[in-house]
Design a protein that fits this description.
This protein has 187 residues and is an alpha/beta fold. Helices cover 35% and strands 16% of the residues. It has seven helices and seven strands; from the N terminus they run βαβααβαββαβαβα. The protein has a three-stranded parallel β-sheet with strand order 5-6-7. Helix 3 packs parallel to helix 4. The longest helix is centred in the last third of the chain and has 12 residues. The chain is elongated. 30% of the residues are buried.
């Protein structure tokens, strides 16, 4: 089984008491792997490149079927890549990502930063929050999300060095306070 989001892990774990014996788990990155371990799964593979393409390349050949529980709007990168390698994929929509409305979002104060954690978030920000104030920093969780944010028409000022919330927040803090000295125990 391959999982590419903590949400996929949560949704699946809510529906099955545990994984059948012999099921091996590959997670797209450490945050997803942490979510899997938190529900009691053993994670067998986390690729060095934390992306669907990285997972396609890192997954060993298998004669069995790979289960891919995913969001309805997930890109086809993983499925297409595994199938191109001759790996049978059971591609299952496990959850749907929905917007929170259609009205423009207006804020009383200009935000210092907007955090973009996925392509769908980028599209919602572009649809409901633009034009953004030029002083607002747009920060993306990883390079793939930055590409999607730019495609949605957003400027990208910061990209997290690794695809994790921690790395994104560290990058935002650094961008907003570039001369702030590090304190022991506090980056």
């Amino acid at each position: 089984m391959v999982v590419t989001s903590a949400t996929a892990v949560t949704v699946l774990a809510e529906r099955v008491a545990g994984l059948p014996a012999g099921v091996r788990v590959a997670a797209v990155g450490e945050p997803t792997a942490r979510a899997a371990r938190a529900v009691g799964w053993v994670v067998d593979l986390v690729p060095t490149e934390t992306s669907a393409a990285g997972l396609v390349h890192a997954l060993p050949d298998t004669a069995g079927t790979v289960l891919f529980p995913r969001s309805e709007i997930a890109a086809s990168t993983l499925v297409d890549g595994l199938r191109a390698r001759g790996i049978d994929v059971d591609d299952v929509v496990a959850y749907r990502t929905v917007g929170t409305g259609d009205e423009p979002i207006t804020l009383d104060t200009v935000p210092d930063a907007v955090l973009v954690t996925s392509g769908s978030v980028a599209r919602e920000i572009a649809r409901r929050m633009t034009p953004l104030d030029p002083r607002t920093l747009v920060a993306c969780i990883g390079p793939g999300t930055a590409v999607e944010a730019r495609a949605a028409g957003l400027p990208v000022h910061v990209v997290g060095p690794t695809r994790s919330a921690e790395a994104l927040l560290d990058a935002v803090v650094e961008a907003l306070n570039p001369t702030a000295p590090e304190q022991e125990g506090h980056p």
